[in-house]
């Protein structure tokens, strides 16, 4: 009660802004954590541009291992923010924020360029070229020429676009109004030579229709699929998805596999690749190269 009226107004507005659409209670009470989160978001926004310029956002690569031949079939590029003063800033802290304010587009382009630099370096040093998948936020699909900057970057580094897979999340397809543009962009990806994969397959409600409507090269099955593979029903569902994918020529990648029993089942069921800590966590590029060399030598 002793607080200044402007403070009370600010707190009321803050509480109102932090009411989610799913909440149905009539009142929302202020919590100091709201202000702390807003201050943290403002701090991360202020750090964003200098970190892009200084290279504080780093590429970590997590390998995709062939189920049948145990060979490395590619890798996914994952962003890690390692700030000289703040230390490691977790993706869960900044990815949703930058998706909300649109800065994720700049970060995606930055990561894409870093991947192109890595592929160019591998080619120049005569190293084995592995296809790398790069995440592409749904924010890119608000524009008709989203792929133009990607094509320009790949051309600048003389990168064959077939070396790069553009990874989309299933949430891109939830906005019915954007689907015509998404379909157009996926077709354009293939015209330019990029591969296209669908992350979080099966986590939403329209997965099978996505396979029918859109020309997806690969799907990634979330780790939640494999939590209880001892259940016959779970095994039947997974096997059916893998068989369907194979019949339409779509590659399958299993994420988050944790043990030999899951590996054995996926091998028998016909999965193509596994991306998991079972083989390796995401690694800085130099450490990934060392991991790959050790694995190939053994």
Describe this structure in words.
This protein is of the alpha/beta class and 298 residues long. It contains ten helices and ten strands. It has helices at 5-17, 32-54, 91-101, 104-124, 148-156, 179-192, 207-213, 232-247, 260-269, 285-297, and strands spanning 57-66, 72-83, 87-89, 132-135, 164-169, 195-201, 218-221, 251-255, 273-275, 283-284. The protein has an eight-stranded mixed beta barrel, surrounded by five helices. Strand 8, helix 9 and strand 9 (273-275) form a beta-alpha-beta unit. Helix 4 packs parallel to helix 5 (148-156). The longest helix has 23 residues, at 32-54. The protein is globular, with a radius of gyration of 22 Å. It starts with a helix and ends with a helix. 29% of the residues are buried.
Radius of gyration, whole Å: 22 Å
Number of strands: 10
C-alpha termini separation: 71 Å
Described by the principal axes of the CA atoms, the overall outline is globular
Order of helices and strands: HHEEEHHEHEHEHEHEHEEH
Structural class: alpha/beta
Helix amount, in percent? Answer: 40-55%
Quick recap of the structure?
The protein is α/β, with parallel strands linked by helices and 298 residues long.
Keywords, please?
8-stranded mixed beta barrel; 298 residues; alpha/beta
Strand-helix topology:
Layout: H1 5-17, H2 32-54, E1 57-66, E2 72-83, E3 87-89, H3 91-101, H4 104-124, E4 132-135, H5 148-156, E5 164-169, H6 179-192, E6 195-201, H7 207-213, E7 218-221, H8 232-247, E8 251-255, H9 260-269, E9 273-275, E10 283-284, H10 285-297
Parallel strand pairs: 2-4, 4-5, 5-6, 6-7, 7-8, 8-9
Antiparallel strand pairs: 1-2, 1-9, 1-10, 2-3
Helix pairs in contact: 4-5
